[in-house]
Specification:
Elements: E1 9-10, E2 19-29, E3 35-45, E4 54-57, E5 62-68, E6 71-72, E7 78-81, E8 84-87, E9 93-102, E10 112-116, E11 119-123, E12 142-152, E13 158-161, E14 164-170, E15 175-181, E16 186-187, E17 193-196, E18 198-206, E19 212-220, H1 228-245, E20 253-259, E21 266-267, E22 272-276, H2 289-304, E23 313-314, H3 320-339, H4 342-364, E24 376-377, H5 386-419, E25 423-424, H6 426-437, H7 446-449, E26 455-463, E27 468-476, E28 491-498, E29 522-526, E30 530-535, E31 543-546, E32 555-558, H8 562-571, H9 575-599, H10 610-620, H11 627-633, H12 639-644, H13 651-668, H14 670-679, H15 690-707, H16 712-724, H17 728-739, H18 746-757, H19 761-773, H20 779-786, H21 796-809, H22 811-814, H23 820-835, H24 837-844, H25 855-869, H26 876-886
Parallel strand pairs: 2-12, 19-20, 20-22, 23-25, 26-32
Antiparallel strand pairs: 1-24, 2-3, 3-9, 4-8, 5-6, 5-9, 7-8, 10-11, 12-15, 12-16, 13-17, 14-15, 18-19, 21-22, 26-27, 27-30, 28-29, 28-31
Helix pairs in contact: 1-2, 2-3, 3-4, 3-5, 4-5, 5-6, 8-9, 8-10, 9-13, 11-15, 14-15, 15-17, 16-17, 18-19, 19-21, 23-24, 23-25, 24-26, 25-26
Function: Aminopeptidase N is involved in the degradation of intracellular peptides generated by protein breakdown during normal growth as well as in response to nutrient starvation.
Domain Aminopeptidase N-like N-terminal: 28-190
InterPro entries: Aminopeptidase_N-like_N, Aminopeptidase_N-like_N_sf, PepN_Ig-like_sf, Peptidase_M1, Peptidase_M1_dom, Peptidase_M1_pepN, Peptidase_M1_pepN_C, Peptidase_M1_pepN_C_sf
Length: 888
């Protein structure tokens, strides 16, 4: 904890390290209460640095020994500062030996070396290695590591670290050792060790080159039957990266380890990926369809980091999206390819865009807005954000949109050819894409350096005589903190034109001279404030389909009539825009109704929305559409996304409108929902494949709508599904339907569910989450759940399952008009700040948009923020969020 104002780090102040580290040898004598770490580094002065002293980072360490070139340093030869060790005037070449003592069992931050359920784990990204030993802990210092682990053999029979196992044996005193060597240079943030009582699911895998590698998934005893899906996902990831990008696994073995106490989803440590159990453990009894899909995605993400992040890493933390945005794009493409159908790809694209709009667009519009490549930070952990990841992925996707799939692959090949084994920048990646394709991408750099979500306005004019159709695109971007004005972005806008029958019109631009085989989708490159594009040979006034496949992360302003939206919803060949048309139609009605409710609370009493109901009926009953697509198309925009469209947010009015529309759709489509429910039931054995998951998704959406009626028939339907479910997806959907209504079996079902799964931590997390998000769960109910014996603030998954789910997933209760939700939030942030600052800072973000709400709520939110600000010493993580949120 700190009482002073934390230092701000600026990208412009980057300087190269004073010394390069060539090799690192580490020896660990592992003990939960007192672990001794001996480190020997060979170092050489960096001729590009002007620094005379050697600066090392360290936090919470007891320094036991310090030697330079074999000689112990006297007290005048070095200085210990707050988080630093500075050695004065070292020689050109240094062998630095350091011995530190650490206390893993007291490390509740879960950064560095810590203990979980009696086992040792590490998390070193971003700056956790400095909690293990003094080191130049920065990503551009890359070295080869050799690590020896020593521990009690009975308590810690498994000893793992990065790379390849080169030696192991007994030490003769009840302890044993294992020595690991990583043949590749890596930054310290990729260091990892695991020691404990674990079991392993292992398989050998033959790479395309013919080389065999060992694949291992390590878990605690009792979880081995939940590892097959993770193993299959790993093999699929290896195969996909070979086929799509020609990238082969470069080690003799690849290991995944699952741990229940983890701040993140997973970590790509070289050859030893450490995962939150949430993204490893799965079988039909405990995991939903979403869990299976997420495991495949996250396993793929961490494996793909082996090249995009490990072999080529980032020069400094400002370049974080260089690895994260690129690797998110790769895992999104992998997941889409695993589905294997055009509709499946569209469904995946829609899901990704929903995340972007629900989380990243609000971030772009709030006090924590930052560019994909930030210019400054106080605590780097706060910048593991949806802007770095999801928006960063969209920036990478735009390269592929502009250059084509083959052009993008050429750029990737050149990137690895130039930079394998190096720590580089976002500009280096952009240069590889430009040079490989002979393109000038200078303006594209603005996607990295400017924050905010651009708005693209579309205006059209049709010349019936000349058969020409003009489309004028203009762009703007609102101010963000520190950026009052913006330069024009380079925006790819994919467009199509539909005739009166709903068919795509071949597209010919006046300046292009396209031949007879004209495409039906064109990518227009908007590079100025305003540009006009003229299409020729357009036989009739078309309906434009703009921003197909969401070709750029922008907000599209286009003045569609309701009838045009219904037309696109029925006919657009671009599945994303077909879904988008339905969302726009629903959003338009919900915004109008919210305005009416704010003026007159009785405005919903005689609700009638024939166009929306008819559109939903047509989509629901269109058997030609994939069930997974219909599920997404028939899901109303979330309350968070609706709020983003409003200048002043009234959460209670938004909730009332959305729920009233759901009830209307339930009532008027009751028979249609029941037909869809029955038609998508599957009596066979459970499979998490995309087709079966899509049918379950549509069936359970129908159940959710029918549950809005809250009558005997819907209660019986939900209870029957709950009692007879053979998988967690169906059981959770039925339990949610019971929990959100007045079903007489609600309490019994919740109690019975806990009794059945109380020994499955991930399922207990689901149980807490479901209740936290139930519409009748208020602050008092959440406090009661916090007193449950299964709840603990110290486990990030458990804290997220209840507190985060309530604050971020239950808007009407969290934004209760008495301010009780905000008081609870403040107490929770303060409590978590003492235990785990990284988790606390994530929760602190829940109120960073407080200025956007109605005046009474705004005042209470501000009071809650101030309560946290004056609560005592704050971690850097929380201090930065609270300070920026309160800044004028």
């Amino acid at each position: 904890m700190r009482t002073d104002t934390p230092q701000t780090i600026y990208r412009k102040d980057y300087t190269p390290p004073a010394y390069w580290v060539d090799t690192v040898e580490m020896g660990f004598d592992l003990d939960p209460a007192e672990t001794r770490v001996a480190t020997r580094m060979t170092m050489r002065r960096n001729p590009d640095s002007r620094a005379r002293n050697l600066l090392l980072h360290g936090e919470g360490l007891q320094l036991a020994q310090l030697r330079v070139n074999g000689k112990a340093l006297g007290p005048r030869a070095y200085a210990l500062g707050q988080g630093t060790l500075e050695i004065f005037n070292p020689p050109q070449n240094v062998v630095l030996e350091i011995e530190t003592v650490i206390k893993p069992d007291q490390n509740t931050s879960l950064m560095g070396l810590y203990v979980s359920n009696g086992n040792f784990f590490t998390q070193c990204e971003a700056e956790g290695f400095r909690k293990i030993t003094y080191f130049p802990d920065r990503p551009d210092v890359m070295a080869r590591y050799t690590v020896m682990l020593r521990a009690d053999k009975e308590r810690y029979p498994v000893l793992l670290s990065n790379g390849n196992l080169i030696d192991q044996g007994d030490l003769g005193d009840g302890r044993h050792y294992a020595t690991w060597e990583d043949p590749f240079k890596k930054p310290s943030y990729l260091f990892a060790l695991v020691a404990g009582n674990l079991v392993c699911h292992e398989e050998t895998y033959r790479l395309q080159s013919g080389r065999e590698v060992l694949l291992q998934v390590w878990v605690e005893e009792g979880n081995l039957d939940k590892t097959q899906h993770a193993m299959e996902s790993l093999k699929n990831s290896i195969r996909w990266d070979e086929e799509r990008f020609g990238l082969e696994l470069d080690l003799d073995r690849f290991m995944i380890v699952a741990v229940g106490d983890f701040n993140m989803g997973a970590m790509e440590n070289k050859g030893l990926n450490i995962f939150n159990t949430k993204y490893v453990l799965a079988n039909p009894r405990i995991a939903t369809d979403a869990d299976f899909a997420n495991i495949e995605s996250v396993v793929g993400h961490e494996y793909f980091h082996n090249w995009t992040g490990n072999r080529v890493t980032c020069r400094d933390w400002f370049q974080l999206s260089l690895k994260e945005g690129l690797t998110v794009f790769r895992d999104q493409e992998f997941s889409a390819d695993m589905i294997g159908t055009d509709t499946g790809r569209a469904v995946k694209r829609i899901e990704d865009v929903r995340v972007l709009r629900q989380a990243q667009f609000p971030e772009d519009a709030g006090p924590m807005a930052h560019p994909v490549r930030p210019d400054s930070y106080v605590e780097i952990n706060n910048f593991y954000t949806v802007t770095i990841y999801e928006k960063g992925s969209e920036v990478v996707r735009m390269y592929q949109t502009l250059l084509g799939k083959d052009g993008f692959r050429k750029g990737m090949d050149l990137y690895f050819q130039r930079h394998d084994g190096q720590a580089v920048t976002c500009d280096d990646f952009r240069a590889a894409m430009a040079d490989a394709n002979g393109r000038d991408l200078t303006q594209f750099e603005l996607w990295y350096s400017q924050a905010g979500t651009p708005r693209v306005k579309v205006e059209t004019r049709y010349d019936a005589i000349g058969k020409q159709y003009e489309m004028t695109l203009s762009q703007s971007c609102p101010p963000t903190p520190g950026e009052e004005s913006k330069q024009p972005f380079h925006i790819p806008v994919a467009v199509g034109l539909l005739d009166a029958a709903g068919r795509d019109i071949p597209l010919r631009l006046a300046a292009s001279g396209a031949g007879p085989d004209a495409p039906t989708t064109l990518v227009l490159e908007l590079t100025r404030d305003k540009q006009t594009f003229v299409f020729t040979h357009v036989p009739e006034r078309p309906v434009p389909s703009v921003l197909r496949d969401f070709s750029a992360p922008v907000i599209l302003d286009i003045d569609y009539a309701d009838e045009e939206l219904a037309f696109l919803m029925a006919h657009d060949s671009d599945a994303f825009n077909r879904w988008e048309a339905g969302q726009r139609l629903a959003m338009r009605r919900m915004l109008a109704l919210t305005e009416q409710v704010e003026a007159d609370p009785a405005a919903l009493q005689n609700l009638d929305e024939p166009m929306l109901v008819d559109s939903f009926r047509a989509t629901l009953n269109d058997e030609a559409l994939d069930p997974a697509f219909r599920e997404l198309a028939l899901t109303l925009p979330s309350e968070t996304i609706i709020a983003e469209q409003m200048a002043v947010v009234n959460p209670q009015a938004i909730h009332a409108v959305r729920r009233a529309l759901r009830r209307l759709l339930a009532q008027q489509l009751r028979l249609d929902w029941r037909v869809a429910y029955e038609g998508n039931r599957d009596a066979g054995p459970y499979s998490p494949d995309a087709s079966a998951a899509g049918r379950r998704g549509l069936k359970n959406l129908a159940l959710g709508y029918l549950a809005e009626l809250d009558d005997t028939e819907s209660h019986l339907l939900a209870q029957s599904q709950y009692d007879n479910a053979n998988n967690m997806t169906d059981r959770m959907a039925a339990l949610a339907a019971l929990a959100n209504g007045g079903a007489p079996g609600r309490e019994d079902a919740l109690a019975g569910f806990y009794d059945e799964f109380k020994d499955e931590a991930l399922v207990v997390d689901k149980w807490f989450t479901l209740q936290a998000m139930a519409r009748n769960t208020d602050v008092a109910a959440v406090r009661a759940l916090m007193s449950h014996p299964a709840f603990t603030l110290k486990n990030p998954n458990r804290a997220r399952s209840l507190i985060f789910s309530f604050c971020n997933g239950n808007p009407p209760q969290f934004h209760a008009t008495d301010g009780s939700g905000y008081g609870f939030w403040a107490e929770s942030v303060i409590a978590l700040n003492r235990i785990n600052p990284q988790v606390a800072a994530r929760l602190a973000r829940s109120l960073d948009r407080w200025r956007k709400f109605t005046p009474p709520l705004r005042a209470m939110m501000q009071d809650a923020l101030r309560q946290v600000a004056r609560s005592g010493p704050l971690s850097k993580d929380v201090h930065e969020v609270i300070t920026k949120s309160l800044a004028e």
